[in-house]
Amino acid sequence: MAESQPLLSLDGDPVAAEALLQDVFRIVVDEVIRKGTNAFEKVCEWKEPEELKQLLDLELRHEGESQEQILERCRAVIRYSVKTCHPRFFNQLFSGLDPHALAGRIVTESLNTSQYTYEIAPVFVLMEEEVLKKLRALVGWSSGDGVFCPGGSISNMYAVNLARYQRYPDCKQRGLRALPPLALFTSKECHYSIKKGAAFLGLGTDSVRMVKADERGKMIPEDLERQISLAKAEGAVPFLVSATSGTTVLGAFDPLDAIADVCQHHGLWLHVDAAWGGSVLLSQTHRHLLAGIQRADSVAWNPHKLLSAGLQCSALLLRDTSNLLKRCHGSQASYLFQQDKFYDVALDTGDKVVQCGRRVDCLKLWLMWKAQGGQGLERRVDQAFALAGYLVEELKKREGFELVMEPEFVNVCFWFVPPSLRGKKESPDYSERLSKVAPILKERMVRKGSMMIGYQPHGTLSNFFRMVVANPALTRADMDFLLNELEWLGQDL
Prior knowledge:
The protein has about 500 residues and is an alpha/beta fold. About 40% of the residues lie in helices and about 15% in strands.
């Protein structure tokens, strides 16, 4: 019956399938790549949720639709989505569009394979190891291990799990029964995935000891030492320190050498969350910010952020050469990882991870690196620093703009002080009123579609803007636009 009554679809019709995809690619090139990167187009076309549901017609029905309708669906999805490749999208730690990385993503999606065995992903098994080898070399390791993970949060969680397993290998079989009360240490400026990871892994958030940071957001090694001693006195067993290279809000770099000294003294695993700041290692001018990173046991690094490799591209790098990843996570599934295969089964990397199916994340970075070369990527990093410096200097020249602090990275944090609050810093309600400014301006810019920039409170500080200079297509004109647009949007406040 199935053969005599084919479904009304593109199955078995390669000509129609090719025509559809060519039409879709044309829409993507026109609506995403051309318009989405054009500063004169909107960053987003904001709609309220109920209206957006109606415009998209999200309901899934019993009957299929015509190809013309499907193409219109594609146009609508693009039209109402935020254009993160837009030069005025400053909202996240990722932005921009690298054409070579995008080409890699298209090829990856088209091949639709899983990165778990050499049998079905021979090219990508070899490619992933070569890319990881290059990233490890930039960290300062001549050997080691690693894997691409579904995001920096998972990379951080892997590091915690590996550090726990290395100290207490019985926990893989016996679980929490095999463990004493454990303690891990990170700064109050760390990424929230550290606490999430502790909860997910069964350690509990109480096991995370928050180390003080200085006024610039850097972990204070002396307080780390104090917290370790305190944990021991309370009967906990310290096992890991997670330092940060490029904190999410302030862009701070922890003093890795001093932290490594503490870890070495106490025999603790040192993990460096360099998801944001790791790409600075490509810059001979600025890599000193990560001095001491080669002393880490593990490093998380997201090239999809500052290098614009495209979501997602997140590497976990290890100094370990004892196959710790596989020993910790492996389960030897016999239907995948047969030991009597006709090739070297060490090439089957799937047992290194907790996933089964794993998407290919190495091709986009590899292809971009092939095109740009290390020199081109270094220029990209240096350009971001230079533009951030330009923005800071321009910001200082204008009335109503106030830096939270002098940045050392490409996070430029500042307040826009509207006309009604200027010169009134001593007023008792100044902070409360200032805190309302950023949310109002954010709503105005999003509804207008002119730009997107994030804001947040921080400790006792009122809401301030966090400008992220990451898109490789940015110019000084975009920095000027940011300041001009804030002045325009806030002139009546």
